Amino acid sequence: MSSPLLLLVFAPLLALAVGTALLAAVLAWTGARARPAGTADAAAAAARRHQLTTGVLALVGGLVVAAAAASLAPTALLSVTGVPGLVAALAPYGAALVLLAVHAAGELTWPRPRGAVRSAVLVHRSLRDLTGARAWLLAGTSAVTVALLVAFGATAADDGRMVANHLTAAEIAAGISGLRGPYPGWPYGGPALVALGLVLLSTLAVLHLVARRAAVGGADREVDHALRLASVRRVLGGVQLLVGAALTGYAVVGGISLYGAGWQGAALTCLGVAVVSLVVSFGALLSSLRPVRA
């Protein structure tokens, strides 16, 4: 993938993501300051502060990694990967893994009950109850990404980086040919599919940490559930943002090349997927930042 096109595609995405991160910090801070009835004790307040710090650090850390990878893509690591633009193509997934690592660290350091007498809420916690529709949204986005990358790989030229021009029968008979690129075929799609799989497995592992973490000391069932639900939403919201950004990038790059090659129908489909993915993913992140009331 050429450097100008990479900058054209990923720079606006990263700028929008940074703006969203700042908004996320403001909304999360506002939510942390709001203390619904039943959550005013010191243990619940400490848990909310820990949750806020983890969420902001995870999102900002992920975006920093994505920005660094995109800026290095045109020059650095080319000799290692052998595929121009591969680092940028995988940047959203690398950012997602960083985000998940920070969330995992936050769960492992979750404030434990203190004092001579400790109490905990004993209740079965189902991931299905905690994740809700957000898990299905992430699964759907991932499925569309897989389908799109497989389609790109199947339609790419022999080198996997170009797509053949749409030609009439007369042009083919006359021996006319041509290729358009950059195009995200298997040199990009293969590593991207592996990276997406790692992100999904890591997401599941972090969600299990949330479901099984210690309850806040002295908190009632509703407060503990609200804290746990907020953590799940922020994990899924951040991952959805980055997986959706990856899908948007692939669809835009592939769509532009398809349009230039004369495959207008396929190109418009790709660009439609890109717009929907971007809007839905940012919307999912913003909705995940709303305070969860006990």
TrEMBL record:
Keywords: Membrane, Transmembrane, Transmembrane helix. This is Uncharacterized protein. The chain crosses the membrane at residues 52-73, 85-105, 135-156, 192-211, 235-259, 265-286. It comes from the Bacteria.
